[in-house]
User: Which sequence fits this backbone?
């Protein structure tokens, strides 16, 4: 099979703008799905939906390890002489997706009863099928990012988001209830099929091969997937972790889950969507790894400070007016949750730098350490709101330290 031409070049401002625009659309669509679900379901029902939303976020977040490894491999391939063994990332993505779906379905009797309080069989089936499709989705994103095909990268993101909101809107209009929002959660996992059908550039990217064997690719991807899975627990799968450490969440849990989701989305949705940009940037700046972190980290802190103030002042009113009188949260809580989102955003940045430096093991250890610390803090005998803030604010500090130490030890190359 003939490889498509890859032209990495520098990560330009226009590429960031294009991905940023796609991210904005994706974020709005995500908010729209949450809004429709919260308006259509009472807090206890939204809690059930929120756990499934988090479960798919956890599983699909782990699949972002394929995006990270694929981006790095394609990005570095331009500096490697042709020849030797080659690997097809898309075929690996398909294989990993099918294996993951089989693992979810096969092990579901052991854990589904503890995670899904309602619509259990449908939840397991959608989780397995959705993850299989999303593995190919993230691999294709990595191929597009590695080749600087940012317009198609953004289009694939938007296709995912629009499919989700379309199904959610249908569920709201036709009264499908909880099941409709479960379908909406995974609907975007087939967006890559639409892109392959309609975009020649995307088809060319799907034919790309990277240097090395499948085993070599999988070793690197394995660390990235493990770390991305750990990051997904804190970023998207937190409702599942909260349920596992709290038992029945009830209406109060639904409010906390919605508050956590809304306060972190403005920072973490763009950062997650721009993983390809970040890794490409850090690969290009590998001679100054730590210095390359300064500007994006400063931007996160400044934007986060504005977000903390806005959440504390306007958050309670916005939550009540947008989602109904049943969703009540204190401004202090919303401000602290936004501060916790800043810490996770900084951990996401240091993790992307570690991946770009081929420090997959340190990347994984950092995220796993942060997740374990957060889980331990959630077990503290405190109120639900307090331990949620403590876990999300303090857990990431350990992971950031691991990443920075590892980056400081590696000589520039």
Assistant:
């Amino acid at each position: 099979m003939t490889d498509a031409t890859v032209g990495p070049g520098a990560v330009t401002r226009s590429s960031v703008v294009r991905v940023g625009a796609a991210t904005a659309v994706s974020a709005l669509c995500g908010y729209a799905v949450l809004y429709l679900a919260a308006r259509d379901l009472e807090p206890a029902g939204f809690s059930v939906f929120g756990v499934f939303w988090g479960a798919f976020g956890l599983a699909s977040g782990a699949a972002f390890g394929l995006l990270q490894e694929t981006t790095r491999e394609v990005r570095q391939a331009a500096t490697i002489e042709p020849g030797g063994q080659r690997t097809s990332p898309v075929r690996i993505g398909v294989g990993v997706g099918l294996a993951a779906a089989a693992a979810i379905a096969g092990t579901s009797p052991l854990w589904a009863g503890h995670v899904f309080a309602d619509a259990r069989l449908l939840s397991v089936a959608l989780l397995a099928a959705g993850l299989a499709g999303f593995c190919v989705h993230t691999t294709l994103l990595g191929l597009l990012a590695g080749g600087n095909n940012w317009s198609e990268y953004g289009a694939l993101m938007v296709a995912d988001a629009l499919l989700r909101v379309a199904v959610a809107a249908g569920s709201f209009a036709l009264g499908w209830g909880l099941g409709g929002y479960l379908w909406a959660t995974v609907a975007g996992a087939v967006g890559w099929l639409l892109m392959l059908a309609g975009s020649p550039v995307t088809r060319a990217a799907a034919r790309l091969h990277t240097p090395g064997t499948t085993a070599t690719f999988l070793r690197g991807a394995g660390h990235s997937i493990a770390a991305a899975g750990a990051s997904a627990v804190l970023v998207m799968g937190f409702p599942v972790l909260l349920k596992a450490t709290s038992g029945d969440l009830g209406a109060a849990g639904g409010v906390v889950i919605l508050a956590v989701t809304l306060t972190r989305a403005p920072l973490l949705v763009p950062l997650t969507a721009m993983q390809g940009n970040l890794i490409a940037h850090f690969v290009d700046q590998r001679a100054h790894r730590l210095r390359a972190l300064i500007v994006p980290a400063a931007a996160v802190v400044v934007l986060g400070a504005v977000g903390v103030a806005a959440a504390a002042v306007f958050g309670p009113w916005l939550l009540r007016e947008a989602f109904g009188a049943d969703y009540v949260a204190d401004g202090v809580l919303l401000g602290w949750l936004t501060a916790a989102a800043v810490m996770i955003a900084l951990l996401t940045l240091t993790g992307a730098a570690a991946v770009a430096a081929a420090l997959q093991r340190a990347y994984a250890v950092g995220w796993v350490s942060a997740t374990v610390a957060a889980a331990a803090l959630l077990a503290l005998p405190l109120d639900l709101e307090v331990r949620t803030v403590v876990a999300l604010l303090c857990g990431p500090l350990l992971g950031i330290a691991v990443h920075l130490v590892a980056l400081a030890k590696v000589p520039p190359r």
In short: The first strand starts at residue 86 and ends at 87. The two ends are 32 Å apart (CA to CA). Residues 1-8 have pLDDT under 50 and may be disordered. Residues 43-77 form the longest helix (35 residues).
